[in-house]
Design a protein that fits this description.
It holds the Pfam family M16C_assoc. This is Peptidase M16C associated domain-containing protein. It comes from Dialister succinatiphilus YIT 11850. The protein is an alpha+beta fold and 975 residues long. Helices cover 44% and strands 20% of the residues. Strands 1, 2, 3, 4, 5, 6, 7, 8 and 11 form a nine-stranded mixed sheet that branches. Strands 17-18-22-19-21-20 form a six-stranded mixed sheet, sandwiched between helices. Strands 25-26-24-27-23-28 form a six-stranded mixed sheet, with helices on both faces. The radius of gyration is 28 Å and the shape is globular. The termini are far apart.
Length: 975
């Protein structure tokens, strides 16, 4: 250990220290004596360093002050007097993470970088932002990020606008978000969890500038802060900097931010709340029932871990008893569960979708009686052990898909640290796992259920009732309220609002001064040294099947990827292949029931997933390789079990259980119903590419086209059941053949050997089949330029085309241009001036070009902004320093730490797409050497795409109908 207990290190006293095996770190808890700031440091050799400063922020209303403050602190500070230093950082940093996050009881400002200088720069900008923000003296920042009255002229309607205001209109559009809001309000009526920390759009416009600034003065003090450092750094230098530059300027004080504990209820609370659906939607099967249970505020880490396992066994696992009971009772099409311990009092939610409003009491009765029966008769020990193995595998694998693992450790630590408990305990799990394994022989899990749920009346039973026209009614009420308010204003008052609207827009449209820009620290192009790794895929033929191996250390885990090409399928088969990929492993086989399969999979593997993919060629827009991809993993010592289970699922799945098949199809449709709007940006972007790309056509079959297919399948399931069973069996037989298979192993020689030794378990029962050439399908869209109506209050607006079809080539300059668009042009035009939460852009190697907005209050205005882009590029003027900034920001994507499995998967994608190392090096060099003239030369390329007649929008029924002339077709989402 670096220090001893009680040591003083640059103003910090060491209060606790320990080695934490689970995160391979020496951990220190320290306090800055003068300011009262708490600090946790995890010392290890990870070069992906992480810092955050977190404040306990406990609002007592739903004005959204914590959320708006999180946005606003990053809009200029003492040292960095720009309008948006956060954006300037994003433009020119090699960060591996850069964001700010608001939770119901805390606000966190995290950053991560693998570059030492960059890490320090990011840390300094964030610390200056939180302690000395310009938003305390400039009301225009609250107007922009929070809310403001907007009035262009006296005859125009008075409206609300603001980034957080519009974001929360979108966030609270889904029935689940509204449900959580209403349920938490009833579950915690006397604590901070009973209000919406993100802000309720109905209440946000009551937030005053005085309240806003008082919130900062109350909560943003070092005595109310939690500072986290992780990774391989010069810690002495870092602590000295924190003390000298920031913390020593503050004196310790008492900050009243304690999260109160809600007194337990004497009986369950029940309520019904409405949510909006589109006018032409049916209300049938649209009700949602949920039971929220609040636990006490002193659960042990073991009890909390055990409850995660219980949730999985009771609800999420195939054949889970609570889910099965609700489905068998006909109380919904799906049951889901979630356990959250990021609150002072953990909350368990059991939610049934696809139900009817009048089934609330029956839902509660079935949940209550089933849980009592389970506690009395006992939980299947084999299922518990399998779930425990799955949980342990996930914990040991530590796979965060390239995101900084140190950040996840830090977030987890806050789950205890914020409530004055030891954050080190949050990172330990080995002892708890070992004890839970011993407890499998006892009634520990049953008693847990009894104590925290069955005998606990601190519950809220809520039903969400679909209501047509509710959103439109709310919009009308807001418009009438604003109209009434406007009519009460004098000419002088109206002039004042118009003047403030104009002043804000002028501020938003104006650029930063060169002097202000130079305050942001910047790396140089010489810092961009990280090489492009050589990706070696060993190739051999095994039993007539091509085998690729990617050599990498995997800590004793075998990763196996199977690729079954779809040459034997016709266009009409593809939706069934997509459905098949969601059903596999959830149906019985000739050897095991689906519940036994689930137990075996959890007991012996790290999981297996199935998905249809189209692997495109980087230089050929009309060609792609369609395949059903299976990704599977297990401890190398359990590879035989993995291969045996894969062989069973692939070769021996039965489609004869009509009841089970219907359950799964209904669940799949229910999941789409609940998630479609929240991922509207990905759906409209995929739909858009189908208008002009063969690869896009194929990808879109898994998008909205599949949603419509599912809806029709559900509607006619009973009459077409036998045909569906036969079709699934036939499609499965066509896909799973040796002739259509190639596979990849990821690991060292031991992992490769383990797979090859057990390959017969997979291949012996597999049909040989007939080898066919790769097939490019033809799915010409029914129409282009579509709009999809929802009950949401915001839009996702996409426009694009294919620049290669106009004779243009892909270059590294397009990557730099994307960074410029994302953090300059689209940020200003669509987010700052337009009020959208964000905007995306993609210019891909195959020629695909897409612009898309996210949670956007506008539609036609956003399309105009897209169409004005070529003129912006044509006249772009940037200093060398600014250009360097964009180049560095572009290269940040290459700083991501790939996990072993990600490295192997990327190597295979590069191989299949023909994206050679030489080609990638050429693009990298073009990025590093990019000049502003290279960006200006892209204006004709972008102009060609903007002139393509392709747009796709999902959003508010009112907004789309007003702009319906923009579209060839306006349609509702599936019912």
């Amino acid at each position: 250990m670096k220090w001893k207990m009680g040591d003083m290190v640059h103003g910090f006293r060491v209060n606790s220290m320990s080695h934490i095996e689970e995160v391979n770190s020496d951990a220190y808890l320290m306090e800055h004596v003068k300011s009262g700031a708490r600090l946790m440091y995890l010392d290890n050799d990870d070069d992906n360093k992480v810092f955050y400063i977190c404040f306990r922020t406990t609002p007592d209303n739903s004005k959204g002050t914590p959320h708006i403050m999180e946005h606003s602190t990053l809009c200029g500070s003492r040292k960095y007097p720009l309008k948006e230093p956060f954006v300037e950082l994003a433009k020119g940093s090699l960060n591996t993470f850069l964001n700010a996050i608001t939770w119901p009881d805390k606000t966190m400002y995290p950053i991560a970088s693998r570059n030492d200088v960059d890490f320090h720069n990011l840390m300094d900008v964030y610390l200056d932002a939180v302690f000395y923000p310009n938003c305390l003296k400039n009301p225009q920042i609250l107007m922009q990020e929070g809310w403001h009255y907007e009035l262009e002229n006296k005859d125009a309607p008075l409206t609300y606008n603001g980034v957080v205001y519009n974001e929360m209109k979108g966030a609270l559009s889904s029935p689940e978000a509204i449900m959580e809001d209403r349920a938490m309000e009833k579950l915690f009526p006397n604590t901070t969890y009973g209000v919406e920390s993100g802000g309720d759009p109905e209440v946000i416009p009551t937030l005053s500038f005085r309240e806003f600034t008082e919130f900062h003065r109350r909560f943003y003090h070092p005595s109310n802060s939690y500072i986290y450092l992780y990774g391989d750094m010069d810690i002495e230098k870092t602590l000295d900097y924190l003390d000298r530059e920031y913390l020593s300027a503050f004196d310790k004080r008492n900050v009243d931010s304690m999260v109160k504990t809600q007194a337990p209820f004497s009986k369950r609370v029940s309520l019904t709340a409405p949510y909006g659906i589109a006018e032409n939607e049916s209300t049938e099967g649209k009700a949602i029932h949920a039971l929220y249970t609040a636990f006490n505020d002193h659960m042990t880490t073991m009890d909390s871990l055990a409850f995660r396992i219980l949730n999985y066994v009771l609800i999420d696992m195939d054949g889970a008893p609570l889910k099965q009971a609700v489905l068998d009772a006909g109380l919904g099409s799906d049951l889901s569960g979630s356990y959250g311990d990021s609150y002072k009092q953990p909350v368990w939610i059991v939610e049934a979708t696809g139900s009817e409003v009048d089934k609330q009491a029956a839902f509660a009765d079935v949940v209550d009686s089933t849980l009592r029966s389970i506690a009395l008769k006992g939980i299947d020990k084999d299922m518990l052990e399998a779930a425990l193995n799955r949980t342990e595998f996930t914990a040991r694998e530590n796979d965060y898909q390239g995101r900084p693992k140190g950040l996840f450790y830090g977030v987890r630590a806050m789950d205890m640290w914020l409530y004055d408990r030891n954050p080190m305990d949050a990172l330990r799990y080995i002892d708890d796992m070992n004890t839970l394994r011993k407890n499998l022989k006892t009634n520990y899990f049953e008693n847990l259920l009894l104590r925290y749920v069955i005998k606990n009346p601190h519950q809220v039973l809520i039903t969400m009732k679909p209501e047509k026209g509710l959103t439109e009614k709310a919009n009308q009420e807001t418009a009438e309220k604003l109209a009434s308010f406007k009519s009460s204003l004098s000419d002088e008052q109206l002039e004042k609002i118009m003047a403030s609207t104009k002043a804000l827009k002028e501020r938003q449209a104006s650029g930063e001064t060169e002097e202000a820009l130079k305050t942001i620290p910047l790396l140089s192009r010489k810092d961009l040294k990280r090489p492009i790794e050589e990706e070696v895929l060993e190739k051999e033929s095994v039993s007539g099947v091509d085998h690729f191996h990617f050599q990498v250390h995997t800590n004793g885990i075998t990763y196996l990827n199977l690729y079954f090409t779809l040459g034997n399928l016709k266009e009409a088969d593809i939706p069934y292949a997509i459905l098949l990929s969601s059903l596999l492993r959830s149906l019985s086989t000739t050897k095991h029931s689906y519940t036994e399969l689930a137990r075996l999979s959890n007991a012996y593997t790290g999981g297996m997933s199935f998905a249809l993919n189209g692997y495109g060629k980087v230089n050929d827009t009309s060609s792609y390789l369609p395949a059903l991809t299976i990704r599977a993993k297990a401890l190398t010592s359990k590879t035989d079990k993995l291969m045996d289970l894969l062989g069973e699922v692939i070769n021996h799945t039965l489609f004869t259980d009509a009841k089970r098949l219907k359950e799964l199809v209904l669940q799949e449709k229910s999941e789409w119903d609940m998630s479609a709007f929240s991922r509207g940006h990905t759906l409209v972007m995929t739909r858009l590419t189908s208008y002009f790309s063969k690869g896009g056509e194929f990808a879109e079959q898994s998008g909205l086209s599949y949603y419509y297919f599912l809806a029709d399948l559900v509607k006619h399931f009973d009459e077409n059941r036998e045909g569906l069973q036969e079709k699934l069996a036939a499609v499965s037989g066509k896909i799973f053949t040796r002739s259509g298979l190639f596979f990849e192993t990821i690991g060292e020689e031991e992992e490769k050997k383990a797979v090859l030794e057990n390959l017969p378990l997979l291949l012996d029962d597999m049909e040989v089949g007939v080898k066919t050439a790769p097939h490019v399908y033809s799915f010409p869209p029914e129409s282009r330029n579509e709009a999809f109506l929802t009950s949401g209050k915001v839009q996702y607006v996409a426009k694009g085309g294919n620049f290669k079809s106009h004779g243009f080539a892909y270059t590294g300059a397009l990557r730099v241009m994307e960074t410029i668009l994302r953090y300059e042009y689209l940020w200003k035009k669509v987010r700052v001036l337009g009020g959208a939460y964000g905007a995306f852009t993609q210019f891909l190697r195959d020629g695909t070009a897409i612009l898309c907005s996210y949670r956007d209050p506008n539609l036609a205005q956003t399309i105009r902004a897209y169409e004005e882009l070529p003129a912006y590029l044509e006249n772009l003027t940037l200093s060398d320093r600014e250009m360097t900034k964009y180049v560095i920001g572009t290269m940040a994507a290459d700083e991501i730490q790939l996990t072993p499995s990600m490295k192997g998967e990327r190597a295979m994608v590069h191989y299949l797409s023909g994206n050679t190392r030489e080609s990638r090096m050429k693009i990298r060099d073009e990025i590093i050497n990019c000049q502003v003239e290279d960006i200006r030369r892209l204006a004709p390329l972008v102009d060609s795409v903007m002139k393509d007649p392709y747009i796709c929008v999902m959003g508010s029924e009112d907004k789309i109908q007003k702009d319906k002339d923009l579209f060839d077709k306006v349609r509702s989402l599936p019912d």
